[in-house]
Design a protein that fits this description.
Elements: H1 24-46, H2 48-55, H3 59-87, H4 89-108, H5 113-141, H6 147-155, H7 157-173, H8 178-195, H9 199-208, H10 218-251, H11 256-283, H12 288-309, H13 317-326, H14 332-342, H15 347-375, H16 378-404
Helix pairs in contact: 1-4, 1-5, 1-6, 1-7, 1-8, 3-5, 3-10, 3-15, 4-5, 4-8, 4-9, 5-6, 5-15, 6-11, 6-14, 7-8, 7-11, 10-11, 10-13, 10-15, 10-16, 11-13, 11-14, 12-13, 12-14, 12-16, 14-15, 15-16
Protein name: MFS transporter
Organism: Salinisphaera aquimarina
Transmembrane segments: 27-51, 57-80, 92-110, 116-139, 151-172, 178-197, 224-252, 258-277, 289-311, 317-340, 352-373, 379-399
Length: 415
């Protein structure tokens, strides 16, 4: 085999023998890093009742804390995506896991709410670096025929983090205390950092795949900004759901243990849907963004079910949460797949831009939801979530039309 041209795409070392083979080690690296980069904020959300009793804060403060996490991630997403391209995806993932381990220890030892607030804000920045790193890693290391599945698995990492966090309520918080949940998570983060391939492999990858110097055009940036707005509105509703699912179930008098299990099952449902949608995307030519908008529409229906459960039909609560997690939060991997296939040579920067919208939605959603719950009711909060999901679906469809009508983007697309 001849030496590849340094400026041209080459098969990754893990796929040298068979370029169409999906290497399990690559999949593990992306999924484990994504789970751990998101775990801190979801542990706080799941353990909010126990942490709140210990550190003296309520629903509005929880919403502010989760929003600060996403604000920190939004502000650092674009510059950190450029850093990722400079140092390599594996090195960024390895350092990110180690940093998250240290932050999880600090969160578990937090003596008061302001200290916890600072730690979670730093965790948001770490997550903002790890997520584009895993996207870039998948685009450059995973064969294109498996990228939908890989991105689905990778995006399933977030609801898996919710599942882990939810299960920590009956398994840890109600037995040995909430602080141990963070300590155990920190040990896993350090172990994962050491299990990832050494950064030397990342440097070799980037010698074969030098960062592109081509900049996104004005039309490309405009399209991505529009998609980012729709993405953000969908995430605003979903992040509020993930932050307040436990407290909503407790408010319905179903108990703390039951609430943690419901949140965990909801996260599992979202994970299964993300993987299934990714497999479907690899095997079909369905318009990805249309499917994303349709799922957001189903999510809006789920939020309306939750609103109804607070009024006259309490039996709709658990089915509504499952549908909201599955449809209303199961589309993220497919959205990222649509973006990286539109911009295959600039995957990190493109997803860095759209991630700003997602992070901004994460800032607004829990904050508004928490304020509405505190000064109004869960009914109004779920209605606002439904409206946000529907508006996000509409904007994403409009953004897709803008992409399809711009011939300048066609030259960057695969296939």
């Amino acid at each position: 085999m001849t030496e590849p041209d340094p400026g041209a795409p080459t098969a990754p070392p893990s796929a040298a023998a068979d370029p169409d083979r999906l290497a399990p080690a690559d999949l593990f690296a992306a999924v484990a890093s994504s789970i751990l980069s998101s775990l801190a904020v979801f542990l706080v959300a799941a353990l909010a009742l126990q942490i709140g009793d210990s550190l003296d804060f309520g629903a509005a403060s929880l919403g502010f804390l989760v929003s600060l996490y996403y604000l920190s991630a939004a502000l650092t997403s674009i510059p950190l995506s450029r850093l990722v391209e400079a140092i390599g995806s594996l090195r960024a993932m390895r350092w990110g896991c180690a940093l998250m381990g240290m932050l999880l220890i600090l969160a578990g030892a937090a003596p008061n709410f302001p200290c916890l607030l600072i730690v979670i804000a730093l965790a948001g920045a770490v997550s903002a670096g790890v997520q584009p790193a895993t996207n870039l890693f998948i685009v450059r290391r995973i064969p294109s025929a498996h990228q939908g599945f890989a991105l689905g698995i990778k995006q399933a990492a977030v609801p898996i983090a919710v599942l882990i966090a939810g299960l920590s309520v009956p398994a840890i918080a109600l037995t040995i205390g909430w602080r141990w949940g963070f300590i155990i998570a920190a040990v896993i983060a350090f172990a994962t950092s050491m299990a990832l391939p050494p950064s030397r492999s990342s440097l070799a990858e980037y010698r074969a795949h030098p960062p592109t110097v081509k900049q996104l055009g004005r039309s490309g940036v405009n399209s991505l900004v529009l998609l980012a707005v729709g993405f953000g509105l969908g995430v605003a509703a979903a992040s509020a759901l993930s932050a307040f699912a436990v407290t909503a179930v407790v408010a319905a008098n179903l108990g703390h243990g039951t609430a943690g299990l419901v949140a965990g099952l909801g996260g599992c449902c979202a994970a299964v849907v993300r993987v299934g949608i990714g497999i479907h995307a690899d095997r079909s030519r369905s318009p990805h963004l249309v499917v994303v908008a349709s799922m957001l529409g189903l999510g809006a229906i789920a939020y309306l079910m939750l609103a109804a459960s607070t009024l006259t039909v309490p039996a709709l609560l658990i089915p509504g949460i499952m549908l909201a997690f599955g449809a209303g939060w199961g589309w993220n991997g497919l959205f990222n797949l649509a973006v990286v296939r539109r911009y295959p040579t600039q995957a990190a920067r493109a997803t860095g831009i759209t991630s700003v919208g997602a992070r901004a939605g994460g800032v607004i959603g829990p904050a508004v939801f928490g304020v509405v719950v505190t000064h109004g009711s869960y009914t109004w909060a779920w209605l606002i979530a439904a409206a946000s999901a529907m508006l996000g679906a509409s904007i994403i469809l409009f953004g897709r039309r803008m992409l399809d009508s711009d011939p300048a983007l066609a030259s960057q697309q695969q296939g």
